[in-house]
Each structure stands twice: as C-alpha cells, then as structure tokens.
Amino acid sequence: MPRMRPSPPLRMLLAAALLCIAPLLRAEPKTVASVDSPGKVLQVALQLDDGKPSYRVQRLGDTVIGESRLGFQLRDGRLDRDLAVLAQAMRSVDETWEQPWGERRYVRNHYNELRVELGERSGLRRRFTVVFRVYDDGLGFRYSFPQQAGLREAIIDEELTEFDIVPEATAWWIPAGEPIHSEYLYRQTPLNQVALAHTPITLRSRDGLHIALHEAALVDYAGMWLRRGDGQRLHAQLSPSAQGWKVKRSLPFDTPWRTVQIADHAGGLVDSNLILNLNEPNALGDVRWVHPAKYVGVWWSMHLNQETWATGPKHGATTANTRRYIDFAAAHGFRGVLVEGWNPGWNGEWFGNGGGFDFTRPTPDFDIEALSAYAAKRGVHLIGHHETGCAVQHYEDQLDAALELYARLGVDTFKTGYVCDDGQVDRRNAAGGPLWREWHDGQFMAQHHLKVVRAAAARHLSVNAHEPIKDTGLRRTYPNWLSREGARGMEYNAWGQPPNPPEHEVNLVFTRMLAGPMDYTPGILSLKGRDGQPIPSTLARQLALYVAIYSPIQMAADLPEHYLQHRDAFRFIEDVAVDWDDSRVLDGEVGDYVTIVRKDRHSRDWYLGSITDEHGRVLPVSLSFLEPGVRYRAEIYRDGDAANYRSNPFDFVREQREVGSGDDLQLKLAPGGGQAIRFTPVDAAAAAGGNSAARR
Amino acid sequence: MPRMRPSPPLRMLLAAALLCIAPLLRAEPKTVASVDSPGKVLQVALQLDDGKPSYRVQRLGDTVIGESRLGFQLRDGRLDRDLAVLAQAMRSVDETWEQPWGERRYVRNHYNELRVELGERSGLRRRFTVVFRVYDDGLGFRYSFPQQAGLREAIIDEELTEFDIVPEATAWWIPAGEPIHSEYLYRQTPLNQVALAHTPITLRSRDGLHIALHEAALVDYAGMWLRRGDGQRLHAQLSPSAQGWKVKRSLPFDTPWRTVQIADHAGGLVDSNLILNLNEPNALGDVRWVHPAKYVGVWWSMHLNQETWATGPKHGATTANTRRYIDFAAAHGFRGVLVEGWNPGWNGEWFGNGGGFDFTRPTPDFDIEALSAYAAKRGVHLIGHHETGCAVQHYEDQLDAALELYARLGVDTFKTGYVCDDGQVDRRNAAGGPLWREWHDGQFMAQHHLKVVRAAAARHLSVNAHEPIKDTGLRRTYPNWLSREGARGMEYNAWGQPPNPPEHEVNLVFTRMLAGPMDYTPGILSLKGRDGQPIPSTLARQLALYVAIYSPIQMAADLPEHYLQHRDAFRFIEDVAVDWDDSRVLDGEVGDYVTIVRKDRHSRDWYLGSITDEHGRVLPVSLSFLEPGVRYRAEIYRDGDAANYRSNPFDFVREQREVGSGDDLQLKLAPGGGQAIRFTPVDAAAAAGGNSAARR
C-alpha cells in the first residue's frame, strides 16, 4: 500500500499551527549536515535537537535507522547535550588496496566522509568530532577526541550511541555478558525480544532488507555489546572493566568505528569489505613471512578423550606421536602441525587457573628441538600453543621468552587460548595487589591481544587466538593476526550437549563471519565425537566447510587414521586452497543455507562450498564466475541420494564433469548436508596428469 | 537444533505398548504405495487407514504435506471410505516438447507416475484411480473415473481433497467467493489465518521453502478454491453452480490435476513447467495463425474518462480516432489495435446486464469494413472486443455470427469481457425459464470459455479473456488461448482506491503468474490516472513490467500522445520482444522484488526486467545468461538517482554499456521503481546501424 502523507507545504502549515497552539512542544530535531553514499544508496543525517546530537540513516528513501542518540557518559559529566556545531567537512575517497592474504586480493574503498565537530556551549566546553564514512553497502561512524583544555583524560562510564532500527526485523544473535563468552548457538527471535547481544548481530526485515551491526578497529577501548531498550532501539553497552569505568584514555584518541552493513541479500553482508576498509592500512610492511596454510595436529584426540593434554600414560604431545603427525602432514601436503599439551602446567585444574603454565620449556616427553628440526627437514612447521587458562598477566610475564623460543625453532605460527572458569580473565593489579577479573571484550583484553600480536610481529610470528576478543578487522593493520575462534567451534561436536546443529554453521556465515576469519577446525570425516556421539553432518558437508567458513589457516582436524579410511573425501581437503583472489556468495539465507565460491590465489582453480540446515535443498547455481571460454573439470563431492545427517550421513558421491561458464548446476543437499566442488581448467588438469595440481 | 527421536525399534515397542493398553486407538495409516521424483527430491506416499485414502509428500526427508484425505462427496454417498486397492502401476516419462509460443521454446517433462485404483469393498462398489505425477519441482495428482456399473453419472457435491501443510508458513493469497472474483490485492498472512482462497496460493515456510498450490487442465469441472480447516490444513472447495451440485459428469472422466509446486527459491516456482506439463498436448495442429504481438488501443482513454465506451460526443471507437491509432501502430511497429466500445449495447447500465450487446455489427460512427481494410494496408490488425456484461448465454447465441464477422475482416485476435455487477454471470435455464447465476470459476464457465476458444480456433482466431476463469495451462492444448486477465490489472491505477501498490506487481509474479500469461496492459508512461491520480510507479518500472509480467500479447496501454512525450522510454516498448526462447528468474522474493531475463525467440537479444515494492533495492546480477564470448550492447533504462514513486517518479536515465557474460551489474531500483535492459550482440547492433533491430 502506498504511504499517503501530506505534501510538504501542508506539513509546514501544520507544524506552524501546532507551534502557535502549543509553543512549549519541543521542536523537530534540526538536520545539521547530511551525506550520501557514492552511489546515492544510503543517506546519513546528523541532527541537533536543542543541543542533543543524533543521527539517522535512510536507504533509497526508506528510513533504516531512525533518530538515534550520540554521546557519552563521562566520569566528569554527560557529554551528549548543550552541543553546537564548531566545524564540518566533507571528502570523497575512491581507492583500491591489496591484501597480503584474504578472501580477495583487491579491495575497493569507496566512500563519502562527513566530519562534524561538536562542542559544549558552556561549562567545560568539551568537544569531539563525529566522523561518518558512508558506503553504498553500509556505514561506519566514530568519535574523535582532539586534545583540549577541558578534558585531559577521558574516563568513559558508558557510550550513549543508539541504533533505532525502524523496519520490523528478525534477529540472529548470541547473548553477551555470559560465562562462556561467545560460544553459544545463535538465537533467532524478533528483534524486539533481544536482550543483551554480542556483535555482529544480523537482522532481516519483513521486506527482505538485511542489516548487520558491529564495530571496526577495536583498539585500546572496550568492546561494544548491544542492549535493547524500547521496541527495536539498541543501545551501546561497553564491556565492563574491573576498574569500574569502561574505558580510560588520554587525549587525543578515536573510538572504534560503529558499523552498519545494509544489503538486499543475505550474501551482500558477507561480500562487503566495510569492516576491513574502516581499519588502518598494514602497519607491518612486507609480510611475506605470514603463511596462510592448512594444518593437522594433536587436538581432536584430546577432545575425544583418547589422549590427554596432561602428561601421563595417554599424553598426546609426545615425541613419537608428534613425529607421526609430521609424517602425515608431509605425505599429504599440510604445512603445519599443531601440538597442544606440549608444555608444563596441564596437570590439575587449569581452566581459569593458568598460573602454572610454563611457555618456555616442553614437557620431558616432548623433544621440541628434535621435532622442529625433523619437521623442517620434511618441509613442515610445528604450530605453537599458548593456553593461558586466563592467567593473562602470568602469560604476559613470559611472553618475550616464549616467543623467542618459537622464533629460534622456526615455529612461525602459534595458537593462544583463554579458557576461563567463569568467563573472565585474571589480571594482576599493577601494584601486585589482588587479582582483578576482566571480560574477554574489555579494554584490558583489547590491549593484551594487540600486545601479543605486536610482540609476535617483531619476531615474524603469526597468531591464531582462541577464546579471543571479537574480530574487528585488525588483520588489515596486523596481517600476522591470521585467525581466531570466537564462536562455538567443532569441539562442541565432540562433547557438546547438544552438538552444533546444521543451522549453526550456516548462521556463523551470516553473523560471526562478518567479523573476520574463524579457525573452525572442520573436516571430521569420522562424523563421531566422544563416546561415538554422532556429529550432525553428512560427509560431503565436512568438505564444504573449508570453503563456506573462511580462514587463512584451516585445520584438517580429524585423526590421520580416519582420513585414511575416507581417502575419496580426504582428497578434497588435500586439494582445497586457503588463500584467495576472489570470493562471492552465490546464494544464501540466514539460518537456512549458503553457497560460496572462491578463486585460488595461486592457480586458476575455483572452489565451491554449499551447506544447508536440517532441511534438504535443491539449489540451482550458475557457473558464470568461471573464466568465459575455458573448460573446467569439476570434481564434485556431494551427498548421495539417500544421505541424511540423522540416518545416513556417510552416503557420499565423488564424481567428475566437464563444465564451462555458461553452464548451470543443481546442487542437491541432503538434510544436514553439503557439497564441495573443485574446478580446474582442463588444460591445467591434463598438465597435472589428471591428478591434483599444486598442493600446499 | 537436531530433532531427537527414538530409534525405530524403540518406536515400535512404544506403539506396541500403547496398543496393549488402549487397543481401541486407531492404527497407523498403512502406506499402500509410494513414488519418488526422478532425482529423488520428492516422495509421495498413498496410504489407506481402515479403507480411507490419504497421501503425504516428503521432500529430501522433510514432510511437506502431512496425511491428507482424498475422496468425494457424491450425491449417492461419500466416496472416501471402505476402499481397497484393486490395482497399481508405475511408469517413468522423460520427454521434451516444443511450445509454439511461450516463455521458452523447449519444455522438459520428466516425471515418475504412480496409479492406484481404489474400489469400495461393499455397497455400490464404486471405483476410481488416483494418479500421481511426481517431478523434482512439484507434483500433480488427479482422480480418474472409469466406466462402471455402480456409477453412470457422477454428481459431485464436494471434492474432499486436503492439503495439510506441515512447515509453519506465510501465505500470499486473495479471497475466493467474493464479488469481484480475482481482482483483489494479495494478502500476506500466516497460513493459519487464511479463510477461503483462490489458487494459485503461494506459501513460504520459516525455513525458506516455497510452495504453491493450484490446479492444471480445468476442463468441464468446477474450479477449486481452498478453505482452511484446522491449523494449516486446506480443503478443496469447488466453485458452486446454480444447480446445487458442484460438478455433473457422465463417466468416464478425469478431474483436473491438483498441483503442488515446491522450490527452495521463490524463483523456482516461476521457472517451473509443472502446470503446462500436466496439460494435454496441442490439439490444434499447426498454429502459425496464432500471433504473439504487441498492441495499442482505444482503452486507457475510457478509463481516464476522457472518452466513453458508449456512443455520444466523447465516443472513443470512432472511425477517425481508430485511424489515428492505426497510424500510430504502423509508425511504431505494433501489430494490433484494440478498439473497445465499437458495437451497440454500451449505452446504459451494461455491468452485469449485457443483454443489449450486439456482436455482429458496429455502431454507426465506426466503419469496421473500411478500418480493417486500412489497417491491413498498413500492416496492422484490428483486435476485436466482446464485452458480455456477464450475459453469457446471450453471447453464446451470437458467437458463431460474431466470429464469422471477425474472420472475414482479418480481425484474428479478440478480447472477451465478463464484467458482472455481483460477481456472477447470467445463464439462461435450458428450458427458457428463469436466469441462473453462475460463478466465474464454476463448471458452466469452464465449459463456456472452452466453447469460445474452440469456436475461435475453428476460424483461426485467438482469444484474450478478461474477467476470465482462472488459468490452468490450457494454452498448451489450445494455443489460440493467448492470454487473459484474472487479477487486479492496470485499470485500477486509473480509478482504483487504492491504486495498485508497487508490491502488487511483484506479488503477481509469484502468485497469479504461476497460472499463466496475464494481459496486465502496462506502459502508462504518463504515470497519471483519472483526474490526475498518481500511479504508484516510476517511469523505468513501467518498462520493466514488459519483461516481468509475461504475456504473449502485450499492450502499450497509454495514449499515443503520451508516448511521444516520453520518446526515450518509449523506445524500449517499441523494441521489447513478446515471444521467448528462454526465461529465467535471476532473483526475487515474494512481495519484495523480482528480476527476470528472457531471450527473444526471433533474434539473439536478451531482455531484463526488474521491479521492487515500495522499498528501493540494490540488486547484483550476473550476466552469465548471455552467450559466452559475445559482446553485447546493453541499453539500460533505469531509475534516476533521485527517483521515488511517491515524490519523483519521472527521474529516469537511459544509458548504454558494452558487457559480456562474465560481467556483473548492480541494479539500483528506486522505491516503487524498476529497471529494463535490452542486450544486443554488438555485431548485430552494428549491422542495424546502431538503431533498433527487427521490431514487431
């Protein structure tokens, strides 16, 4: 139905009439400045209502975010009223930059920027600038605090930013402020039933508009949670600190960017480069020492209870066992071998109690010197592991020595871990007093993670953080921050109650993955967890995860002996690339299914991954992403006709077809199923003798 | 969340236990036979529960239609119980047939068929066969009554077919049994709030499954409405007749097919050929005398109140005025000129009171002989018009003479009309007694429409029925049944309160258009209705409708003088084809937006049409449908950056680009907007001197 509304002159008359009758009614907020996106898709307006700043966002004439407040609760008084415009400026940027590794090689950064400086009209006369960068597929805005006399240090008790979502929407979200941080199954509820949520939070309106709220460049600040107020209005709620305040900064400083992605398709959120574009450029220079790669490791066996992190009769991280993994990695083209439980401190209750960990020497049954030398001889690299048990200051105390050890041994990538007993890490008071408890997303941990990443970069080491702070695109600035966890991963399929239902991995693509890479550790071809618990997945789906869930380091997480039992399927894991020239979502709906294609950065091959929820699907896909005029051999790894994740997960077909860019395929996915395809140009395939081309 | 359920042995034990405790509980229905679709996507089972037949439909392991009853309420007793299987048979068919005209030239018909003959075990021992044809994208089933001793004539008081939709769904539907038949705006409600609905009715489950219910081959039977019972269970309710019964047939006979289309995407419903495949092949032989074409006519001027159907000072159908339209058609490549109001009977209250219409002679100011000769000389054909005012028997009485007139004059296409005052047509009792009132979808009108179509075919004339019976794909059998109305058309934009909101045309694509072509009469470039009422559309959208809403005859419905005021946009209407080699929905969501591409049957050109609802959209589309290796000139007719159907509908851009099959486009649609594109191979474009190629 068309919306009928009075024409502008009539509206003005009405407003005038109301003012005459009721002069004390508050005036309409006054638009101070506004800015369009380059293609005039989005329009952002900054308003002042009697000195109180707010903003709103329109898309192609529809209001997406209604009048939403801006400002701060500072220790020395609210900074969100009595403000006037001191200055404003606009600029346009259209540049293309290159990623050292990533979902795509070239990223276009095309936005219009509006900067409005606001200052208090009385009192302390504090001031800050609101900076909006508006793209066709979303926007970011942040607060920039210049040096000023009335505010030498900002103690932020709360940020007062709001997001009043106008179209009635469904939300996919996980709760914030809970004990196991971000490791929850996604909830699908009306937006007006959200309580306190992590970001990214993904919304779909009744009319098919997709919106995701998150942040970019979280540096020396507290992570933003979103608390719902009235209706669909979301309020920033900064992650707490043990200090009472949320953030403490000396001026000048910038806050992280608050981001709003907006697209007509679910896939439009995933294909957006907004978060990366809002981060600072590479600060590390030449990073050819960062290695996207696949890896195996001593890991799943512990989650199965077949081996232990702790020393003893079932210890996993022994010299002999690690040598077996190195041999397997060398034979099958994996660069890395992760070994957990290699160092002292695992015996006893280490969860949230990591004060006993020693990161500078191995356990006696793990000959790290010999193993790293043996690995190097076979073209393989050990991957280090630093589980902190949330004793963060204890870890920082050993950090330099620990990293020196790895640098000396050629262990050029390491995994960190922050498993707490109640969701908060331990921080020693600077004066050596009592322990303080800090949240994973608070300012302290934002500082800690970058401290580790910078210390690693100084030694040409790369980091893969588990139980981490949320990803806000800092891999652009620090390309050695390769990957992280930050969601319910594969280990829940070993022992979780329930294990991850099929929709979880689809939900990840449209929520968690908007933030950045995730080390999900796929590829459990045995499809069994601890004590034989069935994993809710078909066999083909485990392969599709390597394309669907992006990470520049991908684990083949199952036991070597299980891979040898499923050689036909394992071949895809051997072949699949991890670093990409380009990536595109072909099709997908939040929580239902997704199909993604990616082009290998080091060959002409393309890879496709498609996964569904608990329902089977028949998805037509056009192969137009292939190079026109080139014939490709498609190696198809699909669900068998009778496959079903509940009753028949191993029904699986590997088959080949010759295809071109003009062809269409019908992907038939079983309930809980998936499909993976490798496309190789026929000439390249012939040159490789019909066998796998370059493996890494 | 994975559904936990007891393993089969446990379930059997539970069932046995319940039977022991409560032996009178009814037994589970017994599956008599089942059949898979060729690709094992759908599975249909026929069940008998103590002699009562039912069926259910599963898709890739999920139940889509739960146990749903089959049978009839016959005048001589219910025929839905005490039944046993007499015989059953299966077969597979995979054939490809050619359409003389249509959305695509070749249609694949690939199904597995199950036939089960059921007979009463006592009493009259009546019997019938249920026939299921199961495709990967849907199914049809019908009842087939053989000759038999216990039933010589079937008087059907109701058909007892049910559709118990299992997944929780949203429905798009229009009410049935209402005064203006099918000319309603679509309602979007939870399926469990549907009352009595027309078909096609379109459903979308929470998990993204799209389902449409309709029927195919409605011949000598009453149209099926759907009445909701408990929950999401829909019951067939046959359109009534004035006789008291719903259908009366002598045996043998077949009912129409009850159809269920099922797809993972909204577009999958539109791309399906199910309805056509379930109709009988072409019964008319060589139909090169049927002419898909574009036309103009004396029509919109009457809806604007600028001219009248009735004779008098403002009479539209005059010799001079028609000559003006013929000249315009000849100059701009239109084959047809429709003239309404050409015959006696329009003066006075003719709505539902058409007894005064004379179909065999023109009004004195309309020289039909001279005009048809003049048209022929200019390569143009008059299009005839038979408004019955619902005096159907009165029309049938003149039918032969009326068609003879057209055949003699070369008027080879005619439009019929059935405008009633209360939703029912008039039928004279066979004995000449009182008038009976019949519904548009009842058995009488099913007979009447085919009587007109067959009489037309005998004279090589083609039919375009307005206020018609619903389309069930009979154009396959009778290709001279070119098009029809059967939904709220463009004239509501002249005088409707409200006019058609933008979502209406999107809804049409995913509901009404599943049945077959619609003569929507697009192209009102003036964007104004009666007394200047704004039409809820941008300019570019009016062009996109020619591709989005399929009909083999398409009107350029606006006044000639308006087209000359918008020459840039009008050029697309001149160029666009009406008969297609192929058609594909690239993208779309019910009620939100749709993008369709079609390939011209008489050139290498492709056309794209995209329309949205009241929201603006940015839609990426891949041009992979284009021939690989060929460069195309894309003539783009799009909304201007400031376009908005409410405030700025005329903001419009026509621009050209060179593109190939490897390119992507971003379609930016304004609120209430659209986009139309013609793709011409560059060599062909050059050969045509950069100007329009073959027009028709």
From TrEMBL, chains A, B:
Which PANTHER family does its entry note?
A: GLUCAN 1,4-ALPHA-GLUCOSIDASE SUSB, GLUCAN 1,4-ALPHA-GLUCOSIDASE SUSB-RELATED
Question: Which GO MF terms does the UniProt record name?
Answer: carbohydrate binding
Tell me the protein's name: Alpha-glucosidase
SUPFAM superfamilies annotated for this entry?
Answer: (Trans)glycosidases
Start and end of every Glycosyl-hydrolase 97 N-terminal domain?
35-281
Keyword annotations for this protein?
Signal
Entry keyword annotation includes Coiled coil: no
Signal sequence span per UniProt?
1-27
Q: Where is the Glycosyl-hydrolase 97 catalytic domain?
A: 299-487
Pfam families annotated for this entry?
GH97_C (PF14509), GH97_N (PF14508), Glyco_hydro_97 (PF10566)
Give a yes or no for keyword Signal in this entry: yes
Q: Which organism is it from?
A: Xanthomonas hyacinthi
- What are the residue boundaries of the Glycosyl-hydrolase 97 C-terminal oligomerisation domain, all occurrences included? 579-680
